[in-house]
Design a protein that fits this description.
Elements (H helix, E strand, L loop, with lengths): L24 E3 L6 E4 L9 E2 L6 E2 L4 E4 L8 E2 L4 E10 L5 E9 L19 H10 L12 H5 L9 E5 L9 H8 L1 H12 L6 E7 L3 H10 L6 E6 L8 H9 L14 E5 H13 L5 E7 L7 E6 L4 H7 L9 E4 L6 E2 L13 E5 L3 H4 L10 H5 L6 H10 L2 H6 L10 H5 L6 H17 L1
Parallel strand pairs: 1-14, 9-10, 9-12, 10-11, 13-17
Antiparallel strand pairs: 2-8, 3-5, 4-7, 5-6, 7-8, 13-14, 15-16, 15-17
Helix pairs in contact: 4-7, 11-14
Length: about 450
């Protein structure tokens, strides 16, 4: 399979990456108030440790972790705490947030002396990652210190860096790999220091040959790190599909990557781990792609977390045409926004602005039993049947027929000639089934 590592199923949508892939990362400074939701991760919300009127510095903790599965939040500007109140986030929810009036000075805390990786114990590495508030920045937002605190660290034999970036239009990981590959490799070395028996794999789709060449050159002679080229196919970057492509090991929804002796992190997360471990710096920035045919100048920005989305649009030259649809994330797994007055969070990867809302124009018709959805489903399900069960509210049969194995990638909706919104129906039933299981 050399050079064509992949999985069964999947699709090849228009990738739209040409709009922004050759635009270098641009650092931007926020102009208005900063908003920090206390729930930017899976798990318990962070707890505020500042109050209205307090002066804070860039890099100062403003909310501590609310439990083991939680993550602290840091100020990314200096200024005054204006309020602690509910603010709207990209999902449409109102979330308790800390609002800071940016003073424009960007006065910073002292992060202390940089650390040498060889001087740190495994416990110290995990503690640094936890203190820095690092979470999965590929979209899930799972606290990274929890993911790395596996029960049997000696059983882990692969640390996979998800460099696939299979979601159409997104180019933030590509630019990071092209411009700062050293940070990525050093971050991977920090993770490998936790797992004595593991080898690191930088897994890149083969539509990025320049990235593959650069990373191979940088890791030449490093026995514990290799670069693997994956077949370009969506959703190659989904955790289960990535593990299967790299190792040939299959996992299901009731298993963790650790059950397949793997740890998986995405590019931005690995770079944040490096900053936390080697420089004592908390998670304060992330790379965001602002793109789409409604954007004047599609770009990749290094954004301070808490920055308003309106400002990102301004930095990209504003709208060339009034967008019909704005999506947070990519077109396959992102979700539509009804307004831009929301803050950038730890899990914000992209802002996609489209001149046409093709999906809204679709008129669904009856299933023609063509089987295309089953052909492309990476979870080997029959999505048309799952969607029918969801529409009928038959949760018992839905779970019995492995409906929970759906990874919500959207492949089935994409290929359906009847234009049925299969993914949405299945996603809704999955949420209900998981909620009832928790009860």
């Amino acid at each position: 399979m050399g050079g064509r590592l992949t999985f069964t199923g999947g699709i090849h949508p228009y990738d739209g990456k040409d709009l922004s892939k050759d635009k270098p990362i641009k650092d931007i400074l926020p102009k208005s108030d900063m908003v920090y939701p206390l729930s930017q991760h899976i798990g318990a919300p962070a707890k505020p440790i500042v109050k209205k009127g307090d002066h804070v510095l860039t890099g100062q903790m403003i909310a501590e972790a609310g439990g083991f599965v939680s993550a602290p939040v840091y100020a990314t500007v200096s200024g005054t705490v204006k309020a602690i109140e509910k603010r709207r986030v990209v999902t449409g929810d109102m979330v308790e947030s800390i609002v800071i009036e940016n003073d424009g000075a960007y006065d910073e805390v002292d992060y202390g002396e940089p650390s040498e990786l060889s001087d740190l114990t495994k416990e110290e590495i995990i503690a640094k990652i936890r203190k820095a508030g690092v979470v999965g920045m590929g979209g899930a937002g799972f606290p990274t210190h929890v993911k790395l605190s596996v029960k049997e660290p000696d059983s882990i034999d692969r640390v996979i860096v998800n460099c696939a970036e299979c979601e159409p239009f997104l180019t933030s990981d590509y630019r990071r790999m092209m411009e700062e590959p050293e940070k990525l490799v050093e971050g991977l070395q920090c993770i490998l220091a936790l797992f004595d028996n593991a080898k690191g794999v930088l897994a890149v789709e083969d539509n990025k040959p320049d990235c593959i060449a650069k990373l191979k050159s940088l890791t030449e002679g490093q026995e514990r790190i290799s670069v693997k080229a994956l077949k370009t196919k969506y959703p190659q970057g989904a955790e289960r599909q990535l593990i299967y492509a790299v190792t040939g090991r299959a996992i299901n929804s009731s298993m963790l990557p650790a059950d397949a002796h793997c740890v998986v992190n995405n590019v931005d997360t690995v770079c944040a781990i490096r900053a936390a471990v080697l420089e004592n710096k908390p998670l304060m920035h992330r790379i965001v792609t602002v793109t789409g045919d409604a954007i004047s100048d599609p770009r990749n920005f290094r954004v301070r977390i808490g920055t308003n989305y309106h400002e990102l649009i301004e930095e990209a030259g504003g709208f060339s045409t009034e967008p019909a649809k704005i999506v947070s994330g990519g077109p396959m797994m992102g979700f539509a926004l009804f307004g831009l007055d929301v803050p950038t969070t730890k899990t914000a990867s992209a802002l996609l602005c489209m001149t046409k809302d093709e999906v809204a124009a679709f008129e669904p018709s009856a299933c023609i039993n063509c089987g295309r959805c089953a052909e492309v489903c990476p979870g080997r399900l029959i999505p048309s049947r799952m969607a029918d069960l969801a529409a009928r509210g038959d949760m018992e049969t839905f779970v019995k027929l492995d409906g929970l194995e759906c990874c919500e990638c959207g492949c089935c909706s994409y290929v359906c000639p009847a234009r049925r919104q299969l993914t949405q129906d299945i996603k809704t039933m999955r949420k209900l089934a998981l909620a009832s299981r928790k009860k």
